[in-house]
Amino acid sequence: MSSAIMDNKTATKAFLPITIIFLLTSAFFVLGRSLLAKWNVDADILIAGNILLVILTAFSFYQHTRALKNKNIHAFLRALKGSMLIKMAVCGVAALIYIVSSGKEVNSGGVLGFMGLYFLYTLTEASIAMKLSKQNKNA
After folding, report:
1. Burial 110-134 (b: 16+ CB within 10 A, else e)
2. Spatial distance between the Cα atoms of 61 and 53, rounded to a whole number of angstroms
3. 85, 60 in Cβ contact below 8 A?
4. pLDDT tens figures, 57-84
5. Structural domains counted in the chain
6. Of the residues 14, 29, 41, 76, which has the maximum number of CB atoms within 10 A of its CB?
7. Which one, of 119, 103, 115, 111, lies nearest residue 44 by Cα?
8. Which of 114, 120, 124 is CA-nearest to residue 91?
9. Which residue blocks in 1-139 are alpha helix, DSSP H?
10. CA distances to 36, 39, 118, 134 from 123, in Å
């Protein structure tokens, strides 16, 4: 088997925890809509935030796996920090747009839930990236 196929399989396997988090949280947000409403949390905000975060995480994960092929460890660290900074900025802008557009109807539980999801995805992504860097011969 070629090295590219093996790298692709390794990356796909490494992304599995992110996929599981996305599927479990999405299922909870859809099926637990009434429970979330009792807690005054808008499930639609969490669903939209979850979709945004999985897309951003997939993009940054792609950046990490590309950077791992570089022999310079600093390139990997720059990619890790840069992609997390981009994700934070995009999430901040998304939250700001929601807050400004909602006016006095801001669902603070939804915003806090979105922040919690951000930390969950970011910590999981960083953990996976560090494990991959330890397994990588170049890093």
Report:
1. bbebbeebbeebbeebeebbeebbe
2. 12
3. no
4. 999 988 888 888 888 888 888 888 898 8
5. 1
6. 76
7. 111
8. 114
9. 3-31, 33-38, 43-68, 73-102, 108-135
10. 24, 25, 8, 17
- pLDDT digit string, tens, across residues 5-39: 446 777 788 899 999 999 999 999 999 999 999 99
CA atoms in the 13 A half-sphere facing the CB of 139? 21
| Side chain identity at residue 124, one-letter code | T
- Measured on CA atoms in the order 128, 131, 132, 133, is the torsion positive or negative? positive
Tokens of 78: 């720059």
| 42, pLDDT greater than 70 | yes
**CA distance readout (Å), 44 to 29, 41, 91, 92, 113:** 8, 9, 16, 18, 11
